[in-house]
Amino acid sequence: MKLILGIDPGSVITGYGVIRTDGVRDFHVANGSIRIKGDNLPEKLGCVLREVGAVIDEWQPAEVGIEQVFVAKNPMSALKLGQARGAAICAAVARNLPVHEYTPRSIKQAVAGYGAADKSQMQSMISILLSLKDMPGPDAADGLAVALCHAHSRGLGSVAVSAGGGRRRNRRWSSAP
Question: How confident is the model at residue 164, as a pLDDT?
């Protein structure tokens, strides 16, 4: 069974979820939300790097999935989110972990069967799919969703990843042991 860490990066809160999978069945291991602390951007990015690193050190996942940045109405928010995402990726890469990226739409599609599912739909599906007694918070549920998306995608030779604007492209994933 493989341990997978899913990360939903944020500049205020970063959600994470850890699952164990055998390629067919998925089991909840842990989830949580990291509140980003700091008075300025470098301090906040350092917090993301340290805290995501601590999660990795605690759970020792074999692979990491992370949500890609989407550009909403505010380009500055997207830029800050991208920087937080980069800090989280660096925490994984510094520990020699493979990192796989997924669009928000592909994560929602993999978990809820609907690429425009809202937060409450995602939380409900995560609770059902992982047989959780308590519904996780929205950021933790998003982290678990990324982990599930990766677990369901990693066994496939070719995974369709939304490239924005409705276009689709195939990405070849390496088959890691």
Answer: 34
- Identified catalytic residue from 57, 67, 101, 118: 67
Question: Is 130 within 8 Å of 5 (Cβ atoms)?
Answer: no
Instruction: Verify whether residue 67 is a known catalytic residue.
Output: yes
Active-site residue flag, 43: no
**Among 26, 51, 63, 139, which one carries the catalytic annotation?**
139
Interval 112-152: pLDDT, tens: 988 888 989 999 999 999 999 999 999 999 999 999 999 99
Q: In one letter, which amino acid is 4?
A: I
Its pTM stands at: 0.85
Cα(155)–Cα(151) distance, rounded to whole angstroms? 7
Report pLDDT digits (tens) over 92-123: 999 999 999 999 999 999 999 888 889 899 99
As a whole number of angstroms, the distance between CA 4 and CA 47 comes to 22
| Catalytic residue selected from 8, 26, 51, 63 | 8
Tell me if residue 39 is catalytic.
Answer: no
User: Which of 123, 152, 125, 154 has the alpha carbon at shortest distance from 140?
Assistant: 123
Task: Tell me how far CA of residue 132 lies from CA of 9, 56, 93, in angstroms.
Answer: 23, 22, 30
- Which residues on adjacent β-strands are paired with residue 168? 162
- Residue 103, classed as helix, strand or coil, is coil
